[in-house]
Amino acid sequence: MKKVAVVIYEGFCMFEFSIALEMLALQKVPTHFFGAEKKPYRSEEGLLSIPDYTLDELNVDEYDALVLTGAMDEEFPIIRNQRMMEIVRQFDEKKKIIAAISIAPIILIRAGIMQHRQYMAGINKLDLIEEGFTMDEMQGMIQWSDCVDKFDDMKFLKDDHILTSVAYGFREWAMELGIMLDIPIYPKTYGLD
To answer: What is the per-residue pLDDT for 35?
Structure first.
């Protein structure tokens, strides 16, 4: 049976992974929620949620996929959490699915796993340079403005076992996650053909 780890943090975005979570629930895929601490985190929509476990309790070998949602706040303190970076690197080393949407791919950049990959991110490179990221770290990134202006029909980007998207591709991103997990998906349920 497939098993999925979802990480939540202050300001996490519910709508971006709502369909993915519903799809996993419909197929009874065990889905566990993790946070840096076992404390309440408020989503950007205002929902207060408490993770089941802390990041220190996440054993990568027990999971098939890691799901990371975006957040409204560009501050995004989770990118300074060393345990989060270790988890991302372990998922990558073991070629397990990593699904990141909106600005969550910056977690993957910070973990140092995106240098030679193509990916989408819901933020612009100049904003990340101000946060201390380098152009070398972001060379394969399709930034927010390009996603909207040049690639508006692209809803997600898959590079091997890493799946990325921006906010408006949340339905297609969720469906691709289901395909990667090899579980039945129902696109028409979510308004897709």
So the answer is: 97
Tokens encoding 175: 């469906």
Dump pLDDT digits (tens) for 42-99.
999 999 999 999 999 999 999 999 999 988 766 678 999 999 999 999 999 999 999 9
Cα–Cα dist 126/24, whole Å: 35
Give Cα separations from 68 to 151, 188, 189, 193 (angstroms). 22, 24, 23, 25
State the helix-helix crossing angle for 14-26 and 170-181, rounded to 10 degrees: 30
Q: List % helix, strand, coil for the chain (3-state, nearest 5).
A: 35, 20, 45
- Which residues are paired to 60 by β-bridges? none
Nearest to 58 by CA among 22, 89, 12, 15: 89
CATH number of 4-185: 3.40.50.880
d(CA 12, CA 108): 16
Pairing of the two strands 156-159 and 162-165 = antiparallel
Taking Cα atoms as reference points, which of 114, 27, 28 lies closest to residue 68?
A: 114
Sketch the domain layout of the chain as residue ranges.
4-185
pLDDT tens track for 118-163: 999 988 898 888 888 889 989 999 888 887 777 667 899 999 999 9
Residue pair 34/28 in contact (Cβ under 8 Å)? The answer is: no
